[in-house]
Amino acid sequence: PGLYAAGECANVSVHGANRLGANSLLDTVVFGRRSGAHAVEYIKTVGDHSKSEEDIKSEKARIQALLDRPKGERVATVRNDMARGMTKGIGVFRDQASMEGALENLVNVKSRMDGFSVENKGKVFNTDLMFALELEFMVDCAEAVVAGALTRKESRGAHYRTDITERDDENWLKHTLMYKDETAENGVRVETSDVTITQWEPIKRVY
Question: What's the whole-model pTM score?
Fold first, then answer.
């Protein structure tokens, strides 16, 4: 009856602001076991999910519309432009100007979304169509990343701003929460929630 979010998919703050690959090996074991046990119990509390025929028709029509588009810009070109803009504007080192540049690039990418075409018109393992559908979701995620980074006026973990190099626990010891909201600026509403401190206070990492 839908998607079941667990582990980092349900809460990306498991490792704080600087999630490293090796650190996550243990939590995949822990949350794999815990989420499996919980999913068994959860499924007992929900009924069958009836699929909306209108939703199915709408999605089929959306996909067919992509296939029916006349020849236009290649999906890969738009995707690569988005990737380059994100790497340049919001990569390892970032500042206000570079992040605003990344946002401007996303606006440009979105303006081209209705103009790209799917060259492969087939319906069996069509990777060109898959990349086109993925690009829409990637742009949504990119907008959320940029909106959250622009909101946070500090450096913390992997979010390193060259124009604000210090961490600010007084104002920014918070989770940033992004919501897709067409009424908000750039289509993303940003909210914050306080971090719950349990056993260990955050300290500055020094080498």
Answer: 0.85
